[in-house]
Design brief:
Blueprint: E1 6-10, E2 15-20, H1 32-47, E3 53-58, H2 69-86, H3 88-110, E4 116-120, E5 124-125, H4 127-133, E6 137-141, E7 148-149, H5 163-170, H6 173-182, H7 188-193, E8 199-201, H8 206-215, H9 239-256, H10 261-273, H11 278-293, H12 296-313, E9 329-333, H13 337-348, E10 352-356, H14 360-379, H15 385-393, E11 395-398, E12 409-412, H16 418-429, E13 437-440, H17 447-451, E14 460-465, E15 474-479, H18 485-497, E16 501-506, H19 513-530, H20 534-543, H21 550-557, H22 559-573, H23 580-592, E17 605-606, E18 616-617, H24 636-656, H25 663-674, H26 683-690, H27 692-706, H28 714-722, H29 726-729
Parallel strand pairs: 2-3, 3-4, 4-6, 5-7, 6-8, 9-10, 9-12, 10-11, 12-13, 13-14, 15-16
Antiparallel strand pairs: 1-2, 14-15, 17-18
Keywords: Fatty acid metabolism, Lipid degradation, Lipid metabolism, Lyase, Multifunctional enzyme, NAD, Oxidoreductase
Family: In the central section; belongs to the 3-hydroxyacyl-CoA dehydrogenase family.
Protein name: 3-hydroxyacyl-CoA dehydrogenase
């Protein structure tokens, strides 16, 4: 029998080699066709007496990248249809049967009576890794780039095809919970040490090693199907188990504040499943998976963190009539921390980089930063000395602007000051070749006004990186009023080359990300001035789903920079554009107390010397509060809501102002750019999933109590009256093929 996604060849020894190779795709994903065909292959090889065993592998560079999550979206749509037509019970049964099907296919491999070996030739994630876990033997090819793991929790799901049951039956419970709850993939060496795979061999020997295991009498029985099987960490109610699960539950709550149904379900699946035989345990897993699949958190996270991100990364906003560009050489003007980091990530991606600063010493410091970063990577085993040598060879540091003459793209990253930037443009322009694109890495200054100092405004664009550049995945691309399509296409192509996710926004002060996160920081300051205890401000923000509290974030950004931006805003827009009480607080902290934030080890927090304990809130803060409120009288839910609502309202304003024209960019940008509660799906999904009408009612309630920063824009009022959503009214265009 022939298959669309698999090729099956049986050799003279009776070993069937099943090769996964989805036509027209660079990587295998687990879709409906693959599931159907794998089921048919299991049945055929099990029934064929001539087949002695089966090896499954991939013809691609990777084994499998995981499930096609758009298939899950389709399941949810089918659920809604059956719910409407036949009621909740029928809809629940349909979803349970569908979501359990792949788990049953994998269990049929395990119980087929034929030995199955997984020959893992590259990346194996999610459902792809679950396929290997149900095989009786797992061998991986030597490859430093290969990663194995179960990252489903990062998109609001969990491994629903046996992952929550097989991993803790192979791996000690603490390691198993880390793999499942963090979702971080591991190297093949780590996987072998954890007992997730049995062997690592040279790539050329991979299939032979898998077949040799079968020919050598490999057993067609999973460990948990053997009589007398013992769990690696002992029974759940053993002494070791009782030390693990209560502590694990406490850690789970500390890390998630119970905002993630999938993480909670993982804890329950493992705890309940390990007390049951494997088949009953797999049924338990499927029930939890069905429940989580129906949650709004899973729907929101799948849409934003998988589907939308994938579409944006593939060029959803790229002008279609501009030919593809490949940036080979860039210049970064300004070799300070930000510019040096931009230079580093560009060189890491294989681009030649010229780092320019006011003098040679400053330029040398920029290259030294890149050297320090790559040396840290070598110490952590994430890079080799040869990588460092190659990377540093691609970076040239100089004070001579004439080095701009042969670059394809210039990124200016000098001080956030209009005059300094204008002087930089004037120096640079005389050396630029005619078709070069010029970008400013400003974080707040409007691009249109900056472009006035540039002779060809069509080639001027904003490329806003987030700090630390090496870690932050988002890049904001800002269109000035006169920015041309070639500049936009080049910027998008460059961002894709360096492996970041771009969002495209129209020009405004603060653009999108800083407008929203600025509201978050300001709300923390408002609470501080109201008399809310600083520790409560920080903890409630984290309970709401933010990665760090607003006071801590202020310190990271630098309090003196916050004060500078406040003064620049006041100078440009007038005194009503800022809160005078917040300015007074910043002046007190920065100019009177000399507290600049983390950079001088004192801000809202005191920072110990490196390696000497944790940061702690500065005891002198209470003296700066006009009054202190009794924490027992404060509404924690309202404090949490204030943090999310104030950012979401600002995101809605950016849509009304035409800064954001595609809701995917607001959602992906808010999660990647400033950590807006990922379980909500992002700022606009937060509104959509709450319901626009309900959200506007909440805005008015907070507006009456706390002021106009919660006033919903007219657009939102209109949408609430019509029962519209952002994804309905502003339906995103599909990505270019």
């Amino acid at each position: 029998m022939s298959y669309k996604n698999f090729k099956v060849e049986t050799d003279a020894d009776g070993i069937a080699l099943v090769t996964w190779d989805i036509p027209g795709r660079s990587m295998n994903v687990l879709d409906e066709t693959s599931t159907n065909e794998l089921e048919a292959i299991v049945k055929a090889t099990t029934a064929d007496a001539a087949v002695k065993g089966v090896v499954i592998t991939s013809a691609k560079e990777a084994f499998c990248a995981g499930a096609d999550l758009s298939m899950l979206e389709g399941m949810n749509q089918a659920y809604a249809k059956v719910f409407k037509e036949q009621g909740e019970t029928a809809a629940n049964q349909m979803l349970f049967d569908q979501s359990r099907r792949f788990s049953q296919v994998l269990r049929s491999i395990e119980t087929s009576g034929k030995p199955w070996a997984a020959a893992i030739n590259g990346l194996a994630l999610g459902g792809g890794f679950e396929i290997t876990l149900c095989c009786h033997y797992r061998v991986a090819a030597e490859n430093p780039k290969t990663r194995l793991g179960l990252p489903e929790v990062k998109v609001g799901l969990f491994p629903g095809a046996g992952g929550t049951q097989r991993v803790p039956r192979l791996v000690p419970p603490q390691d198993a919970m880390t793999i499942l709850l963090k979702g971080d993939p591991v190297t093949v060496e780590k996987a072998k040490a954890l007992n997730l795979i049995h062997a690592i061999v040279p790539a050329a020997d991979l299939i032979k090693a898998a077949k040799d295991w079968i020919n050598g009498g490999g057993k067609a029985v999973a460990p948990w199907d053997e009589k007398g099987f013992k769990l690696p960490g002992g029974p759940v109610f053993s002494k070791a188990g009782m030390m693990m699960f209560p502590a694990g539950n406490a850690i789970y709550r500390r890390e998630t504040y119970d905002n993630y149904p999938a993480a909670r379900a993982i804890m329950s699946c493992v705890y309940e499943g390990l007390q049951l035989p494997i088949d009953a345990a797999l049924r338990v897993e499927s029930r939890y998976f069905t429940s989580v699949l129906r949650s709004k958190e899973a729907a929101a996270m799948i849409r934003s963190l998988f589907l939308s991100m994938q579409e944006l990364n593939k060029g959803a906003r790229r002008p279609k009539d501009v030919p593809a560009t490949k940036v080979k050489k860039i210049a970064v003007i300004g070799a300070g921390f930000m510019g040096a980091s931009v230079g580093y990530v560009s060189a890491r991606a294989g681009l030649d980089v010229v780092l320019i600063d006011r003098d040679q010493e400053s330029a040398d410091k920029g290259k030294a930063h890149a050297q320090k970063v790559i040396e840290d990577q070598i110490k952590k085993g994430r890079a080799k000395p040869a990588d460092a040598e190659a990377l540093l060879a691609r970076i040239t540091q100089t004070a001579d602007y004439a080095a701009l003459k042969d670059v394809d793209l210039v990124i200016e990253a000098v001080f956030e000051d209009r005059k300094v930037k204008a002087d930089t443009f004037a120096k640079a322009q005389q050396y630029l070749k005619p078709d070069v694109i010029f970008a400013s890495n400003t974080s707040t200054l409007p691009i249109t006004s900056l472009a006035e100092s540039f002779k060809d405004q069509g080639k001027f664009i904003g490329i806003h990186f987030f700090s630390p550049v090496e870690k932050m995945m988002l890049v904001e691309i800002i269109l000035g009023k006169n920015t041309g399509d070639v500049a936009l296409a080049t910027a998008l192509d460059y961002v894709r080359q360096i492996g970041k996710t771009p969002i495209v926004v129209n020009d405004s002060r603060g653009f999108f990300a800083n407008r929203c996160v600025g509201r978050y920081v300001a709300e923390g300051n408002e609470m501080f001035l109201e008399g809310v205890p600083p520790a409560m401000i920080e903890n409630c923000a984290k309970m709401a789903g933010m990665p760090v509290g607003p006071l801590s974030l202020s310190d990271e950004v630098a309090l003196d920079l916050g004060l500078k931006i406040m003064r620049a805003t006041e100078a440009d827009l007038g005194p009503n554009a800022i809160n005078p009480e917040q300015k007074k607080l910043m002046v007190e902290l920065v100019e009177k107390q000399g507290r600049l934030g983390r950079k001088n080890s004192k801000g809202f927090y005191d920072y110990p010397e490196k390696g000497k304990g944790q940061k702690s809130l500065w005891p002198g803060l209470s003296a700066l509060q006009p009054k202190q409120l009794d924490p027992d009288t404060l509404d924690i839910e309202e404090l949490k809501q204030r943090f999310l609502v104030v950012q979401a309202v600002e995101a809605a304003r950016t849509v009304e102002d035409h800064v954001i024209t595609d809701p995917r960019e607001a959602d992906v940008g808010s999660i990647l750019g400033f950590g807006f509660a990922p379980f909500t799906g992002g700022t606009l999904s937060y509104i959509d999933f709450m319901g626009t009408k309900k959200f506007v009612e909440l805005c008015h309630k907070l507006e009456a109590k706390y002021g106009s920063r919660f006033t919903p824009p007219k657009l939102l009022e209109e949408m609430a009256a019509k029962g519209e959503t952002f994804y309905g009214r502003f339906a995103p265009k599909k990505a270019a093929a």
